[in-house]
Amino acid sequence: MSDLTDVASELYGRPPGEFTAARNDRARQLRTAGDAELAAAVKALPKPSAAAWLVNTMVRHLGEPVAGLLELGATLRQAQDDLDAARLKQLNKDRRALVAAVVRQGSALAADHGQKVSAAVAGQVEATLNAAMTDAGAAAALRTGLLVEAMTASGLGPADLDGVLAVPEAMGELSPAPPTRRKKGKKSEGSKRTTGKAAGPDEDERAARDERAARAATAKAQEELEAAETRAVRADDALAEADAAVQELEANELRLRSELEELRRQMHEREHELDRNERALTKAEKERSTARRRAEDATARADVARGELDRLRGPRAR
């Protein structure tokens, strides 16, 4: 599968808009070269989601921030195994700050590649980074740079990696050796006694039961914290969207008010123009009436003069 991993590494480093065409071209080249099996495997590679593409791109271009994030995740998991509550509290605070910073860097990186990161995609990227910090398997999957879907993890439990990798076999090459866990042994009351007797089975069972209960309580508290942080992020996103909507509506209101003022100004001018036209019309109608009377008088006088002329001409004509 190393050949498929190499091809996938090249394809999943491309911008989202180029992936499908590049994948199909590569599969066609392999088929032409006679490698039908690899061609079919390449053709079956799924296009990554927007969040998966961004995380893959961050792995390729933000090496130090991503490595630092995964290193802090390993430290966090060790503190969890040690049941070190005080250290876990500080490490979780550091984790939140670091994840937020890396997500911001990823958003800027996406902008450099001509891609806009929505609040939903940023949330999926954050969930993927958190999963990689809380689960060693998710960390190995992230390091491949071959994610096709975002990852999620519940508290400090294992992440669901089903279907998140283009080439699952690639993770084996990058998976770290199982970490050495420091065992936190508990001395029994018997070991403290001057008699030097070893702890009995009851004491060992109680110690193991207490440790399991402490682990469960810590895991539950961590899960509740993760859920609260997720709700806070979603609330912040909703607030940002609401702010943007308000700003857009306020800008639209200003535009409409400006247009309305312009229309009112034009209406005021038209009213004055109409008033002037009405006064001119009244005057013109009066002048027309006067002109009509004068024309009628002149016509009547002309008729009288014509009759008088005809009368004077009459005897001569006879």
Automatic annotation (TrEMBL):
Domain of life: Bacteria
Positions of the UniProt region annotated as Disordered: 1-20, 171-231, 268-318
Protein name as catalogued: Uncharacterized protein
Organism: Georgenia subflava
